[in-house]
Amino acid sequence: MTPSPAVKAALSSQAIETPSWAYGNSGTRFKVFAQEGVPRTPFEKLDDAARVHAHTGVAPTVALHIPWDRVDDYAALSDHARERGLRLGAVNSNVFQEDDYKLGSVTHPDPVVRRKALGHLLECVDIMDATGSTDLKLWFSDGTNYPGQDDIRTRQDRLAEALAAVYERLGEGQRMLLEYKFFEPAFYMTDVPDWGTAYAHCLKLGPKARVVVDTGHHAPGTNIEFIVATLLREGKLGGFDFNSRFYADDDLMVGAADPFQLFRIMYEVVRGGGLTPDVAFMLDQCHNIEPKIPAIIRSVMNVQEATAKALSVDADALAAAQAEGDVLGANEVLMDAYHTDVRPLLRALREEWGLDPEPMAAYRRSGWAERIVAERQGGQQAGWGA
Ligand code: LRH
Ligand code: MN
Ligand code: MN
Questions:
Q1: Nearest CA residue ID for atom 11, ligand 1
Q2: Which whole number is the average pLDDT over 37-66?
Q3: What is the percentage of the chain residues whose pLDDT exceeds 90?
């Protein structure tokens, strides 16, 4: 397959952000299986992320989660990243792990708790100022477990008030990305359960507010690519939290459970002109039983392969078949692209970039896995189940 210069350029400019928390220990609420050699500090998480970028060439930024990645000196953390060819990416807020937030954070009935949660969100913007990060990612676990527990509409008012205060605080070039999730930990009603709710808030806030699509946050059978197409059409897609799910919010490797869905999503991204720095391609995963760094390398490659396949769709042939109402022909054009083996193209591209064409093998040979086991004692948990 001879890729067009446009396809090569698109693949060369794509950047996939890895999450700091994927490098640390994690598990389910039943058990964290600690691994040897995991990072003990946010600085060491960056050291691992640098290996992912070194072998793939397309993972130059790392998302932080506060307070999991709280440090005294964020400028030093930025420097540490820069020295390893990385930059700090989205700052993820965390208002879901303190006792005070039992009934919610920014939607809590008590104004004292709401003020505390807002204070944390504003602190995250301060951190962005120090790190040079442009995106604040907001996910709220807020919701209720029982009908009547709290007033749905009043909680939306409280949410809108907090979001407006954060929006006001954003500086030049900074954005806020609002993430939705249909349930968990709230089981009856979640305050930001779906893209419609997130979109409504972002629309009211203004152009710096965008919606984040976490692929694991939908009910089974949801047509996620439709959501992507719609948000892109409205100029409101801020980015992705990529992962795979079989059942609920499984946080497995992106492209592992349903590579065809990932292809369909990436096709809508390409179709909607979303392969730009305006759309953040982030991973949000936890590697509970598999070795973490290779799992992240594999995930980055899965996104890259789905992107390459989406770029291989013969747009003219597809448009012609669609215009003729050729149902099977149109479907065949899309499936041809999905079935294209893009791995030779990506190997060739990596060679052009001066990288080993096989990132997984190169990582295995690098000796990094053995080195961190020898050098790091008492690694850190990501924060989940800590
Ligand atoms: C919530 C979520 C959100 C959090 C992350 C750790 O399920 O997807 O993005 O910040 O997990
Ligand atoms: Mn997420
Ligand atoms: Mn999630």
A1: 284
A2: 98
A3: 96
Residue with token string 């008030």: 161
Mutational pocket test of ligand 1: of 18, 66, 241, 288, the residue with most ligand atoms within 8 Å of the beta carbon: 241
Does residue 381 belong to any structural domain of this protein? no
Domain of 31? 5-376
Whether 350 is covered by a domain: the verdict is yes
For position 78, which CATH number holds? 3.20.20.150
Q: Find the residues whose C-beta lies inside 6 A of ligand 1.
A: 92, 139, 179, 181, 214, 241, 249, 284
pTM: 0.97
Predicted pLDDT of residue 4: 85
Question: What 3 state SS string does 314-357 have?
Answer: CHHHHHHHHHCCCHHHHHHHHHHHHHCCCHHHHHHHHHHCCCCC
Tell me: pLDDT of 386 over 50: no
289 CA to centre of ligand 3 in angstroms = 18
pLDDT mean over 9-24: 97
Summarize the chain as % helix, strand, coil (round to 5).
Answer: 45, 15, 40
Ligand nearest to the CA of 245: 3
For atom 1 of ligand 1, the residue with the nearest CA is 139
Measured from the alpha carbon of residue 22, the closest ligand is 1
